[in-house]
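Please review this pair:
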Amino acid sequence: MKESRRIDSRADRRPDSRPEEGHFLAGPNRRGPELFRTFRILIEFVRGFRQLHFLGPTVTVFGSARFGEDHRYYELGREVGSRLAKAGFAVMTGGGPGIMEAANRGAQEAGGCSIGCNIELPREQKPNPYTDIWIEFRYFFVRKVMLVKYSVAFVVLPGGFGTMDEIFETATLIQTGKIEGFPLILMGSDYWQPVLDFAGDKMLGEGTIDRSDLSRLELTDSAEDAVQRILEASTDRFGLVWERAPGPTRLLGERARGGCGPK
């Protein structure tokens, strides 16, 4: 009779270059490393809270990292960032190139507060140079919390899987009441209309969403219109008032940077 033995596929794995989150999601590990990662995740959350606590009204802009500055979507993102900054909003992105760089650049050029929440990835996600506050995260889910927690609206320009994930995760949080019904604005009708058609024809038709869920996804091609919608929702629906925010506490080593922080 053959002796049975437990085979752990991790035992034969060679060292790899996956980011820390890849190891975290690879399945059960020894309890010591799991506990260590738990504290690392906690520290990452605290670091994000400390950096972003004094932003004031903030809008997060999502979009692809793959558009160069000569692309029309890059120009649209830059205009959105500029108009948001001039309207008094801080502009937060994933901190990388493409649309993220464009929105950060527009905000910084307009004298506003520009924030980048970057993520460690094997490719594409190099930080852009147009941020006043820049934070790098190991874990996608921590970064997502930061991009949602401090925002009063979301603007989504064309993008790939990551952008789609951000759209529907934000829509789900609104749908389930985890966050307020903040504006969720898609920009680029030629790009997003097929997605809305699928949601309206198939998802609504099959009853997997309600018409009110579909109405949460607003569509426009105008940066001016997008910012006006955000302003109206922020002031009329949510009673947002621009006023002096509490300042950083020196005892905790906090400070405002760049165009960010109390005015």
